[in-house]
Amino acid sequence: MSTRADDDDQQRFALGFLFALIALVVMTVLGVVVYKYGLSHAPRSPAAAIAPAPTVAVVTETVAVVIPDGASIRVGEGVVNFYFATGSADIAPGAAEALALVIQGVQSGRKAVVSGFHDTTGDPAKNEELAKQRAQTVRDVLTGLGVPTEKVALEKPAVTTGSGNNAEARRVEVKLVD
Fold first, then answer.
1. How far is it, in rounded angstroms, from Cα 114 to Cα 85?
2. Residues of the chain with pLDDT under 50
3. pTM higher than 0.85, yes or no?
4. How many angstroms separate the CA atoms of 103 and 97, rounded?
5. 120 to each of 9, 64, 73, 124, 167, how far by Cα in Å?
Protein backbone atom coordinates (compact mmCIF):
# COMPACT_ATOMS: atom_id res chain seq x y z
CA MET A 1 0.00 0.00 0.00
CA SER A 2 2.84 2.35 0.64
CA THR A 3 4.16 1.80 -2.91
CA ARG A 4 0.88 3.08 -4.32
CA ALA A 5 1.11 6.22 -2.16
CA ASP A 6 4.73 6.67 -3.21
CA ASP A 7 3.71 6.27 -6.88
CA ASP A 8 0.93 8.87 -6.42
CA ASP A 9 3.37 11.27 -4.73
CA GLN A 10 5.89 10.80 -7.54
CA GLN A 11 3.22 11.39 -10.19
CA ARG A 12 2.04 14.56 -8.41
CA PHE A 13 5.62 15.79 -8.15
CA ALA A 14 6.25 15.03 -11.84
CA LEU A 15 3.03 16.79 -12.91
CA GLY A 16 3.76 19.78 -10.69
CA PHE A 17 7.29 20.00 -12.07
CA LEU A 18 5.97 19.73 -15.64
CA PHE A 19 3.41 22.51 -15.09
CA ALA A 20 6.06 24.72 -13.48
CA LEU A 21 8.38 24.11 -16.44
CA ILE A 22 5.62 24.94 -18.94
CA ALA A 23 4.77 28.13 -17.02
CA LEU A 24 8.45 29.12 -17.01
CA VAL A 25 8.74 28.62 -20.77
CA VAL A 26 5.54 30.60 -21.45
CA MET A 27 6.65 33.48 -19.20
CA THR A 28 10.09 33.54 -20.85
CA VAL A 29 8.58 33.70 -24.34
CA LEU A 30 6.20 36.49 -23.27
CA GLY A 31 9.08 38.38 -21.67
CA VAL A 32 11.17 38.14 -24.83
CA VAL A 33 8.26 39.31 -27.00
CA VAL A 34 7.55 42.30 -24.74
CA TYR A 35 11.25 43.18 -24.57
CA LYS A 36 11.78 42.86 -28.33
CA TYR A 37 8.64 44.55 -29.59
CA GLY A 38 7.71 46.68 -26.60
CA LEU A 39 4.25 47.43 -25.40
CA SER A 40 3.96 50.37 -27.80
CA HIS A 41 3.55 47.92 -30.70
CA ALA A 42 0.85 45.86 -28.99
CA PRO A 43 -2.33 47.55 -30.28
CA ARG A 44 -2.82 46.59 -33.92
CA SER A 45 -6.56 46.95 -34.29
CA PRO A 46 -8.08 50.39 -34.87
CA ALA A 47 -10.50 49.98 -31.97
CA ALA A 48 -7.71 49.23 -29.51
CA ALA A 49 -5.26 51.77 -30.87
CA ILE A 50 -7.18 54.99 -31.36
CA ALA A 51 -9.72 57.01 -29.52
CA PRO A 52 -12.76 58.36 -31.33
CA ALA A 53 -11.61 60.84 -33.96
CA PRO A 54 -12.34 64.53 -33.40
CA THR A 55 -14.83 66.09 -35.79
CA VAL A 56 -12.42 68.78 -37.03
CA ALA A 57 -11.20 67.93 -40.54
CA VAL A 58 -8.35 70.47 -40.66
CA VAL A 59 -5.54 70.22 -38.14
CA THR A 60 -5.13 73.77 -36.84
CA GLU A 61 -4.89 73.41 -33.08
CA THR A 62 -1.65 72.71 -31.29
CA VAL A 63 -1.61 69.63 -29.10
CA ALA A 64 1.54 68.26 -27.48
CA VAL A 65 2.13 65.03 -25.59
CA VAL A 66 5.54 64.96 -23.92
CA ILE A 67 7.10 61.71 -22.75
CA PRO A 68 10.11 61.87 -20.39
CA ASP A 69 12.45 59.71 -22.51
CA GLY A 70 12.32 62.15 -25.43
CA ALA A 71 9.47 60.71 -27.49
CA SER A 72 6.45 62.95 -28.01
CA ILE A 73 3.78 64.05 -30.46
CA ARG A 74 2.82 67.55 -31.58
CA VAL A 75 -0.10 68.49 -33.81
CA GLY A 76 -0.27 71.97 -35.26
CA GLU A 77 -0.49 74.08 -38.39
CA GLY A 78 -1.58 71.20 -40.59
CA VAL A 79 1.35 68.94 -39.64
CA VAL A 80 1.58 66.04 -37.21
CA ASN A 81 5.09 65.64 -35.78
CA PHE A 82 6.13 62.42 -34.11
CA TYR A 83 9.29 63.04 -32.05
CA PHE A 84 11.52 60.09 -31.17
CA ALA A 85 13.87 59.21 -28.35
CA THR A 86 17.56 58.99 -29.20
CA GLY A 87 18.36 55.82 -31.19
CA SER A 88 14.72 54.68 -31.22
CA ALA A 89 12.10 54.18 -33.93
CA ASP A 90 9.26 53.57 -31.43
CA ILE A 91 6.27 55.92 -31.56
CA ALA A 92 5.53 57.65 -28.27
CA PRO A 93 2.73 56.29 -26.13
CA GLY A 94 -0.33 58.50 -26.36
CA ALA A 95 -0.14 58.90 -30.14
CA ALA A 96 -3.73 57.75 -30.62
CA GLU A 97 -5.24 61.23 -30.97
CA ALA A 98 -2.63 62.35 -33.49
CA LEU A 99 -3.03 59.12 -35.47
CA ALA A 100 -6.81 59.58 -35.39
CA LEU A 101 -6.43 63.07 -36.89
CA VAL A 102 -4.28 61.70 -39.72
CA ILE A 103 -6.72 58.84 -40.34
CA GLN A 104 -9.63 61.28 -40.39
CA GLY A 105 -7.81 63.48 -42.90
CA VAL A 106 -7.18 60.49 -45.16
CA GLN A 107 -10.80 59.39 -44.86
CA SER A 108 -11.86 62.87 -46.01
CA GLY A 109 -10.00 62.29 -49.31
CA ARG A 110 -6.54 63.60 -48.51
CA LYS A 111 -3.19 61.79 -48.72
CA ALA A 112 -0.67 61.48 -45.85
CA VAL A 113 2.92 62.38 -46.81
CA VAL A 114 5.38 60.95 -44.28
CA SER A 115 8.94 62.37 -44.02
CA GLY A 116 11.69 61.35 -41.58
CA PHE A 117 14.32 63.63 -40.09
CA HIS A 118 17.29 63.07 -37.77
CA ASP A 119 19.54 65.05 -35.44
CA THR A 120 23.24 65.85 -35.91
CA THR A 121 24.67 63.61 -33.20
CA GLY A 122 26.45 60.37 -34.05
CA ASP A 123 27.13 58.69 -37.38
CA PRO A 124 25.35 60.47 -40.29
CA ALA A 125 24.75 57.20 -42.20
CA LYS A 126 23.13 55.56 -39.15
CA ASN A 127 21.06 58.69 -38.54
CA GLU A 128 19.85 58.63 -42.16
CA GLU A 129 18.81 54.97 -41.79
CA LEU A 130 17.11 55.67 -38.45
CA ALA A 131 15.14 58.56 -39.98
CA LYS A 132 13.98 56.16 -42.72
CA GLN A 133 13.01 53.48 -40.14
CA ARG A 134 11.04 56.05 -38.14
CA ALA A 135 9.11 57.16 -41.23
CA GLN A 136 8.42 53.53 -42.13
CA THR A 137 7.20 52.87 -38.57
CA VAL A 138 4.67 55.71 -38.81
CA ARG A 139 3.59 54.50 -42.26
CA ASP A 140 3.24 50.91 -40.99
CA VAL A 141 1.16 52.01 -37.98
CA LEU A 142 -1.16 54.00 -40.24
CA THR A 143 -1.62 51.13 -42.68
CA GLY A 144 -2.01 48.74 -39.75
CA LEU A 145 -4.88 50.93 -38.56
CA GLY A 146 -6.65 50.60 -41.89
CA VAL A 147 -5.31 53.49 -43.97
CA PRO A 148 -4.97 52.26 -47.57
CA THR A 149 -1.32 51.91 -48.65
CA GLU A 150 -1.86 54.15 -51.67
CA LYS A 151 -3.01 56.95 -49.33
CA VAL A 152 0.32 57.02 -47.43
CA ALA A 153 3.44 58.22 -49.24
CA LEU A 154 6.98 58.11 -47.91
CA GLU A 155 8.85 61.19 -49.06
CA LYS A 156 12.52 61.72 -48.37
CA PRO A 157 13.07 65.42 -47.70
CA ALA A 158 15.84 67.24 -49.59
CA VAL A 159 17.62 67.81 -46.26
CA THR A 160 17.03 65.05 -43.72
CA THR A 161 18.80 66.81 -40.86
CA GLY A 162 15.94 68.26 -38.86
CA SER A 163 15.76 71.82 -37.63
CA GLY A 164 15.70 72.86 -33.98
CA ASN A 165 17.49 71.22 -31.09
CA ASN A 166 18.34 67.50 -31.21
CA ALA A 167 15.03 66.46 -29.61
CA GLU A 168 13.08 68.50 -32.20
CA ALA A 169 15.23 67.26 -35.07
CA ARG A 170 14.49 63.55 -34.39
CA ARG A 171 11.04 63.54 -35.92
CA VAL A 172 8.69 62.26 -38.57
CA GLU A 173 6.38 64.80 -40.15
CA VAL A 174 3.02 63.78 -41.53
CA LYS A 175 1.38 66.33 -43.82
CA LEU A 176 -2.09 65.90 -45.24
CA VAL A 177 -2.21 66.96 -48.89
CA ASP A 178 -5.01 67.08 -51.45
1. 18
2. 39-68
3. no
4. 10
5. 66, 23, 20, 7, 10
